[in-house]
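Quick one: structure tokens for this chain, please?
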Amino acid sequence: MKKIVIFILIIILLGLGCVFLKQDKKIEKNELIIGLDDSFPPMGFRDENNEIVGFDIDLAKAVCDKLDMELKLQQISWASKEQELDSGNIDCIWNGFAYSEERAKTMTLTEPYIKGEMYFVLPNNSNIKNQEELKGKKIGVQTGSVQELDLENSEFGKNIEIIEYSDYLTAFMDLETGGVDAVFTSSIIGNYLIKSKNKDFVTIDSKDISKTNGSVIAFKQGNTELRDRIQNALYELKKEGVLENISEKWFGKNMIIVKDNLEEK
């Protein structure tokens, strides 16, 4: 009888040891795998050397340096980003990921760290002068983007034809050839593409469509530990002036909206 009891205790202890080893392994994991669309300038895209660069990439590198973590970039389909996160293939979505109430219900999010205005981009020779005149027209958006969601849920969206694209670079190319009448995007992406590609585009302000408060970093729902580590690193980098320098590099001005600390309202 004693032998049976001892055997059972050994099995229990071995099981507990395996659990602790797994937990230690999880704690010791010192890498951050971010999922991104690698054709989303200036947040994350491939340069002439096929290297992934961008504002969010520089930001992630600064955070990982601060936390002594190894950064790994994982290109994903933007349409299936939520599945990639839920499956554990990536640790977070970090690529101009705009806040929305729907996303806040299904993922754990940081505070917004940068914000741009939503607007329509049109060819310079377009006769359309305001949002009202876009009714009945074809409007391009990226599949799975908050811009697509906002258009679908707006009154204005009921009066247009929404054309989906895998990425905004393709949408802008189609805009040049007349495939769509306008592209609905953030000024962060729009301004960069217009300037860097020297495109002959004009913009029209949007009204009563967008509800986003800015871009956030998304983690699997409940993963507050990793979220808090990243968030606190952003607070520190804000105080050190690192975030402002990165913004100046990519946008020519400070567009950072990170708070000084968690208590700031």
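The chain has two domains: 30-115+213-251, 118-205.
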